[in-house]
Amino acid sequence: MESCLPTSGEKYDGHFPFFRQPTKVGEFSLDEKRDFHHSSCQKKYISWPLKRPLDDGQSVDVHFDLNLLLDRAVRKDDSQLDERLDNLLKWILKNQEKFKLQDRKASFSSLSTDFVCYRGLITKLMATPYENREPWIICATKWRGTIYLCAFDTEQKIADRQRETPRQKAMSSWGYKFEQYMMSDSPGAAPDPHTPAVESAEFCCVLRSRLGRHSVVYGAEVDGVDPHREAGDGLSMAQFVELKTSREVETPRQRNSLQRFKMLKWWAQSFLVGIERVVVGFRDDDGTVHRLHAYATKQLPKEQDFWSPSVCMNFAAAFLAWAAEQVTGDDPRAVWRFEFEPRRRRVTCQSLGRSERYRILPDWYTENVFRPGPDT
């Protein structure tokens, strides 16, 4: 019998659920070839135009040409990538000791974590009660007491990517170029936008938190560190700044779109990892940023009347609780598929058995995760 979870927002209105402040437990980098590095080699630093951080609510005029060297950008070809959870699993293999709850010298056979996933998946869940256009697919596998969640492209998304126009591709690259104007490789250094942007490189943090009754470990790509707030131990996520671009608001319709869709995503992404500030580059239709504006993450929900943070988090917590009931057994190759259908306002769950198409856990992970590894 098919099981389903309703997504209508009114069902999830109420008190904000328990959410433990996320704790940073590690980091890793991906270079321009998407090779994994167990280091912070791709970490970047914010370079403020006024040589000091923008205050929350403050704007400053700039002139950033996002088309500069656009034709030479090193792009990430999502259609050719099938990384699934692989990079996060590589980090887990190199940090098994961080999952031991008792004697670190004793053997262990569980991560003692309810869920493992990427932040983007939780962000997708948080936006679901307000999503009326884009379906999604999330697959799950339970092994040694942990449920691994992985998002997969829908047929609609694959088709949309194949139909992308040159302008759409250029616009998707503008955000990376904006980051190049705003960040450098070391504290205090000047950005160098006169080189091609490398869109395929990433710096990721790994965080541990709890939502409702369930513990979660998740990876998250993050932007730059504010050198004025860098913590000595490197553990505080408050030192990071989230960078975004958006069309300059000139009409009520544009303002509604900004508040209804973009601010929801900005808030969810930043809130989930404890980032306290979002800096937006407001651009024109030709790809020139004329203004920077700093938003405090905690203020974003107060800037609009379209969505409720409580509804977002209550649905995400409800989905985790429901998934924990649906995904049973202990087989690293068994897969459950969750599918969101916007028109029907529900998520359905289906057991796929052993599915290679949606397989999440590779053999190289399951054969090594609970074995002592090299000290790296």
Percentage of residues in helical conformation? 10-25%
**SS field, number of helical segments:** 7
Tell me what portion of residues adopts beta-strand conformation.
Answer: 25-35%
What is the number of strand segments? 17
Report the principal-axis shape.
globular
| pLDDT averaged over residues | 94
Q: Given the helix and strand composition, which structural class is it?
A: alpha+beta
| Computed Rg | 21 Å
Order of helix and strand elements from N to C terminus? EEEEEHEHEEHHEEEEEHEEHEEH
Q: Regions with pLDDT < 50 over 5+ consecutive residues?
A: none
What is the rounded distance between the termini?
Answer: 47 Å
Sheet of most strands = 10 strands, mixed
Biggest sheet, strands in spatial order? Answer: 1-17-16-7-8-6-11-10-2-3
Please explain how this structure is put together.
It is a single chain. The chain is α+β, with helices and mostly antiparallel strands. It is built from seven helices and 17 strands. Helix 2 packs across helix 5 and helix 2 (119-127) crosses helix 6. The radius of gyration is 21 Å and the shape is globular. It starts with a strand and ends in a 10-residue tail after the last helix.
Give a concise summary.
The protein is of the alpha+beta class and 376 residues long.
Features:
seven-stranded mixed beta sheet, alpha+beta, ten-stranded mixed beta sheet
